[in-house]
Structures are given as structure tokens and as C-alpha cells.
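Ticket #4471: structure export looks truncated?
Reporter: QA, pipeline team
Priority: medium

Steps to reproduce: submit the single chain below to the structure queue and open the exported record.
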Amino acid sequence: MNTVLQTELHPTDNKQQSNIIDINHLLNPTQEPLPIMDSINPIEEKTTKKEQDAHPIKSLEDINAIIKYFLSNNQYRNAMLFVVGINFGLRYSDLSEIRFKDLIDNNKGFRKEFQPNEKKTNNLRHIYINDAVKEIVTIYLTQMAENGVYKSLDDYLFVAEGTNNIKTRQIEYVDNEEIKYKTVQAPITIRAMNPILKQATEYLRIKGRFSTHSYRKTFAYHILLQENNTNHNERQIEFLQKIFGHSNQTTTLHYAGFTEDEIKAAYLNLNLGLDAIRQYKH
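Actual output as written to the record:
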């Protein structure tokens, strides 16, 4: 099936006009995605020393500068990694496992949300896909297609580039109600991922200790600064506990009265780096 499905993007202000993203021609056909896992009880999250040492990127100007740096140097995978990382707030172990089928459905349109199961805590996260993520993924797929590389929905988002150190992985998929196996390129390792942000921040002279943990911390920092969460600091922290799936979220959320609509609005309004993406001229 090769039906064109277009996704309308909602502008972040009245000055911007709505855009249409058509990614149908940028992807290869693929099998039916596996079903989403059922929800489970949250487990307490523990922060490692490396996570504690990493700094968030607090300045929106710095965030936009990093994205422009990647795009202007044709580092489209790195731009996608950065934008997805700071808008989803996942650890490396979960970020690296994202496949295109998690963001794009079988009709080649962007999904509204997806539910990754976090490896470290075994928590089921509920993530909404905002415009910044949609647009940077489209830029990446466009560049790959122009170079004759068409990604399938089974492929991982973040893989090694070039011909060196290419590793593969077997994944399961469903075909005619039977579980079969397919070989795809394995995701990039944390050893290869860590220097990406460091090199960009060093070149741009952005001071701080930055690693893959900075993506998650940047997400948390800017979630807390959103206008709809600035009235009470305790409420901000509780809101973030809900998003991260901390073990005491049930009592906290019952007291604070958080709703799924508030979490959805937080994800969709975050759009970190969207201005830089839209200013990019291909």
C-alpha cells in the first residue's frame, strides 16, 4: 500500500503559515508494526553520577545555534538526534532504540504519539510528537532520499554513517500473522554518540559539561519553564515526575490534579529548535 498521507503542521505563532509535510515518497514499504506494549507499574528511577554531571542547554539561542551548526555542515543525522533528544527527554538506551515506525505509521504519515518502554526503569512513557521532531525527521529523510538512500519504517533513526563500523541487528516483524526476522543496521553506540554534542558546543563556545544525558536534562529544564507550569515550583516538579514516570507519581498527580491533556500540551508546545529548523533553506 502506497497511499499518500499529508500531515498539517500548526505554526507556533500567527506570523507563520501552516505547512504540509509529505513523507510518503521518502520511505520504502514495510511490514505491519508490532503492537504497543501494555502499561506497567512505574519503578523508582536512580540518577547516575554521569547523569548528575551533565548540564542542560538552558539558552534557546544556544539550542538554535547547535541545530544551525549541524544543518549547515550537512550533519542531518546529528541534527535529528539533537532535536529528538531534547524534545523527547529519553536516555541514550531508549533514544537509540527509536525506529521510524515509532514516529510514522503504515500510511506514511506522522503519528500523534508513541509509547516507549524505558529500559532502566521499565516504565512505559507516553510521548507526543511535536512539530520540531516532525520537521527535522522530514529534513533527514529528504537528504537521504536525495542521496539515493530510502529508509524503511523498520530502520533505526540513529545509525552509523559511511561504510566504517557498520553493524547489523535482527528484528522481529509480523507478516501474515507470522513472526519473522529481518536484518537492519544497528543503532549508533553511546561511545559514538557522546562526542557529537561535545564537538558542536566546543565549536560554538558554549560552556558546560555536555553528553547524551544533556538531551534529557535540557528537556526537563525547558518543560519546567513553560508558561503553563510557572505558577508553583512544586507543581512543576510533580509535572516532570509524571512525564519521567517516577515511582511516587500516583499520589502526587492525584493531589495536583494533572491530566493527560496537560502532558500532551507540554510535548506539543515544547518544539525546541523549531525556529532554527524552519529558517533552514535547502
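Status: closed, not a bug. The export was complete when the record was re-opened. Leaving a note from the reviewer for reference: The two ends are 30 Å apart (CA to CA).
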